[in-house]
Structures are given as C-alpha cells and as structure tokens.
Write a structure and sequence with these properties.
GO molecular function, one term: GTPase activity
Number of helices: 2
Shape: elongated
Distance between the termini: 38 Å
Mean pLDDT: 85
Number of strands: 0
Structural class: mainly alpha
Helix content: 40-55%
Protein name: Developmentally regulated GTP binding protein 2
Order of helices and strands: HH
Radius of gyration: 24 Å
Organism: Allacma fusca
Low-confidence stretches: none
Strand content: under 5%
Length: 75
C-alpha cells in the first residue's frame, strides 16, 4: 500500500467519523498520521551518512584516551 492510498484511507476515515468528545483523540491520531504521510510525500527519506573506517586503541602503559565529538554520532 503506497503513501497515496494511505492518505486517501485516512481521509475517508476522518470523513466518516463523527466529531464528539469521545472521538477527539482518534481524530487527532488520524490527523497526525495524515500530516506525517503528507510530509513523507513531499520530502524523500534521508539516507544516513557514509560510514568511515574504524580504529582501535591498543592497551599499553598508563594513558587516557578521550573521543570528542557531537553526541549520538557513534563514537
């Protein structure tokens, strides 16, 4: 099922759902899904960065090694 079919199904679901206090949460979830699919339709998925070569630090003597960089980048 492609993105366009998912969008049309969600729009149909929103159209046939009555709006009242009990269905507000359900409609909010549907609207959030609709916004997510529309943004995916406009922007293609992003690919991750290229993988660099790894390295090892061998244990020898008394030394301290620190890896400095941005958080969550696979240090």
């Amino acid at each position: 099922m492609g993105i366009l079919e998912k969008i049309s199904e969600i729009e149909k679901e929103i159209a046939r759902t009555q709006k009242n206090k009990a269905t507000e949460y359900h409609l909010g979830v549907l609207k959030a899904k609709l916004a997510k699919y529309r943004s995916q339709l406009l922007e293609p998925t992003k690919k991750g960065g290229e993988k660099g070569e790894g390295f090892d630090v061998l244990k020898s003597g008394d030394a301290r090694v620190a890896l400095i960089g941005f958080p969550s980048v696979g240090k």
